[in-house]
Amino acid sequence: MGQREVLNWLENQRALGNEKFLTIKEVSKGVKNVSNCSGLSNNLFKLASCGLIEWKGQGIWSHQKLFRGFKHK
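and the corresponding structure tokens:
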């Protein structure tokens, strides 16, 4: 699976009205219907570092990275 597929899936979720930030596990479940999930976390981190998707950290002790696509007008 490529970064483009992950990006498209996240953008589609946002376009459908999903405002929630998603965990890697939630993205994995959703993208699994699109393609194989190997390298998913790496793809998410690369997309976030390039500024193509939104991300935030949550929690101190059990820190999670959360992701979502940008909202397009």
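(Above: one complete record from the training split.) The chain has one domain: 3-69.
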